[in-house]
Every structure is written in structure tokens, then in C-alpha cells.
Amino acid sequence: MPNMPSANPRPANPLVVAIAYDGLCTFEFGVAVEIFALPRPEMGTDWYRFAVAGIDAGEMRALGGVRIVADGGADLVGQADTVIVPGWRGSEAPVPQALIEALRKANERGARILSICSGVFVLAAAGLLAGKRATTHWRYSDKLTEMYPDITVVPDVLYIDEGNVLTSAGSAAGIDLCLHLVRRDFGTKAANMVARRLVVPPHRDGGQAQYVESSVPEPHERSRLGPLIDRMRANISADYPVAVLAELAGMSERTFLRRFAAATGVTPARWLLSERLSRARTLLEDTAMPIERIAETAGFGAAGTLRHHFRQQFATTPVAYRARFGSTSRSG
């Protein structure tokens, strides 16, 4: 499960600014544009606004033969509550001092700073990650550790949320991080709506270890895990001992645990916790069901257990989450 400690209030200023530079990483930049710049009238009037800050003069080249003219320069960073660094020219490419100063000032006034993939090296150069955890593409993890030993590099997650500084793993993990921010700001339903338009899962379990070179489960084993996972989702409140799951999948316990981790990136217990938390959040947002009943329906058994996991994963309580994201609070 990705690191998700925060349930911060949504920003009063909805302006999101993406950094553009000569040699721009087109895919990572496109992720920011797709999620934060695309008009979404169904989301209401307090949805994000978007601008591009160019840190190099004039027309900038992006990968793939694209050229970009930005809305403004580094001064736009000073107007944003959310700043995104979509990749970077290289792990050892120098970061302009003007950008470093702009990011530091934004961080000091409480703006959220996000990096996608190699953009983490820009945040590191600005000193925003000292003493914090961070992630990046698995190919860059060792280099980041070598260059910045004061950063705790976590190589096996899709993203890390350190409050106002957030980092993602390689390329497509930027989608996961940006959806996480939408979820933080507007709730699960809004993030699910955005994910549906993107035709991607609203939340991926596991980490980028799933995508490092490894063996692929045999087709017959994948065909056994798929129906089992569907069954667990359909009856999420049931108990699922590993021995029972392995028997249902027609595997030994050892083989089942290995193949389940290869398919999902996590253990069955962590997968179940993630699914149960997702179910509980949906019920808190969309129903007036009592907390005790939600705990039972989502598979936690008791409200105290639900509260424990909510505090541990989201740094909030079910009651506070419902007050912020529930249908009644939104209509009000």
C-alpha cells in the first residue's frame, strides 16, 4: 500500500503550476495536464486551476519533437498552492538557482510540492527532502541515495506523501500520486471519477517492485487468482485465512503467497486492509450508515478497529472523514 499519512484540508487557492524546462519529460508533464488542467465542470467551481511556469527562456523543447511556450516564468510558482515538477533533465543536471529559490519560498509558505519520477532530484537540490522519506523511479534510487544521504529513499512504493512534499516513483506512478492528491482534496468519489475518465484504477495496491524485471505468473495460475480476488471483493467482510485462500486457489500456501505478491505487490493481509479501507471510505461518503455498521460491512468487525486503521493510514477518524467528504457536507 502506498504511503498515505495525510488528510489535510484542501487548499484555499486551487492553482496548480507545473514546471516546464528545455528537455521536458513529455509523459510526466502530460500526467499533470490531464489530471489538473482538463476542464471538469462536473466537479464544481472550486476545482483546480492550472498554469505552466517555464524556467528557460523562450520556446522549450519536449521529448518527442514537441515545443512548448509557457504561461509565465518562475514567478508563477509564487502564486500556486500546488507545484509539480514533472521529471527532470537528468539526475546530475544542474537545477537553476531561480527555480530552487522559488520552490523554497513556496515550501516556506505552505504550498504542496510534488515530483514525478526524476523530478525528485529538483526537490532534493532545493533541500526540500532533507530528513524526509522520498521515492523515485527504481532506476534512480541508488543514485538518489548516493547524492543525498540525508534523504531516506524508499524504493519499493508508488508514492510517498510527507504532507507538503510528495514524491512519486517512475512515470506512470505520477498518475497514482496525482489521484492521491485529488483524493486528499476532494475525497474518494472525486478521485474515482477522474480515474474513470483516465480509464485507470483509482488506487493501485503494492509498489513499483511489481514492475522491476521478475517472472510472470503462469497463465493457469493467473486464471485462478482472478476469480479469487473477485470473490474476496464481493464478500469483503468475511475472514480469509491464508490456508483457506490457498485451498480456494488450488495452490500450496507457499506458492499462493508468492504468486499473490507477484500479482498484486502485497501480501493478502495488506491487500485486504486496503480494500476494506476503500469500502469504508465509500460508505462514509455515500451513506448515513452508522460507524459500527460500516466497520462490520467493510470487514473490520468493530468501530474501534476501523478507527485504529483510519488513524494509522489517513491521520484522521471516520467521523472527521465523513464530515469532510460525506454527501451531506458536500451538499452543504
**Uncertain residue segments:** 4-8, 209-220
Compressed to H and E, one letter per element, the order equals: EHEEEEHEHEHEEEHHHHHHHHHH
The average pLDDT value, as a whole number, equals: 87
How would you describe the oligomerization state of the chains in this entry?
single chain
Pfam family, one: HTH_18
Protein name: Transcriptional regulator FtrA
Domain HTH araC/xylS-type: 226-324
Keywords: DNA-binding, Transcription, Transcription regulation
General description of the model:
The chain is an alpha/beta fold and 332 residues long. Helices cover 45% and strands 12% of the residues. The protein has 14 helices and ten strands. The strands form three sheets. A six-stranded mixed sheet has the order 2-1-5-6-10-9. It has a two-stranded antiparallel sheet with strand order 3-4. Helix 11 crosses helix 12 (303-314). The longest helix is centred in the last third of the chain and has 19 residues, at 268-286. The protein is globular and about 60 Å long. It starts with 14 loop residues before the first strand and ends with a helix.
Keywords:
Homeodomain-like_sf, six-stranded mixed sheet, single chain, 12% strand, alpha/beta, HTH_AraC, HTH_AraC-typ_CS, 14 helices, two-stranded antiparallel ribbon, transcription
